[in-house]
Amino acid sequence: MSNEYQLDTKEFHSLKTASYKVFEVIAKRLNVQTAYVTKRGETAMTVLSSYNKKEEIIPEGYSVEYGGTYCRLIISNKESSLTTTNLMKDELTRELEVSSQLQVKGFLGVSLTDLNGHVFGTLCVMDKEEKEFTEEDIDFLKSIAGVLSHMIELDQTQYNMALLNVPIIPITKGVSILTIQGIIDERRAEKILDNVLTYGTENDIEYFIIDLSGLVIRGNNFPQVFGKLVQSLQLMGIETIITGITPEIAQREVENIALTNLKTKTASNLESALSYIGFSLVESP
């Protein structure tokens, strides 16, 4: 299963806002009770945004394991769509657990992709009554999905731009903190290395506290730039202290020489790191 979209569902602001604005148009045009957008995760489909004209059929946050969803049938269909007059009678859908749970009949769904054609999820409509959807209806829903594709791109771009930031926080003369958050790809790794080494030189840094609590590890690969960064700082005479090693990182990297072989101090939190240097956090009276 693709894990390309690292954003949490609540972070797709543009997509959710745009979908809310078109749901009423879709419901009126296709004469349906419910319209919704799903996001494909590693193992499940999750409803990102939804519209229910009268009673709530599909709530936001509703999640179903991928293998038991209508979305799987949509995405695997060469036409990238699925339509049926009655989900509970259709040969493809009647045995799915979700059909008995939802008790809906008329259904139409199309794949939702980004501008590069990568599957993000689905755009679907459903109704308690039987519905006959035409080719014109399918084309209409696909055209709406095409519009929403631009919103996916916008949200992903904003997310990636935020990740390009290299947050360095000065604590006192000679001491600064680097907080590494999110995903580190090749482009961001280069930026982190360049910015931190330049900052260390220009600001006469003696200690860099590197906090990993916000790091997101993609797949099983710990960012190789981290070892290069620590070693480069040490060659420059800058001591590094690592904080924020989460249980997830520790479990993944216990046998990884990229992390365990680094000759650097580790501390459980910022207070411990500062104490090692000789500073303490004092609460203002």
TrEMBL record:
Give TM regions: none
Indicate the segments forming the STAS domain, all copies: 165-277
* UniProt-recorded name of the protein: Anti-anti-sigma factor
Originating species: Halobacillus litoralis
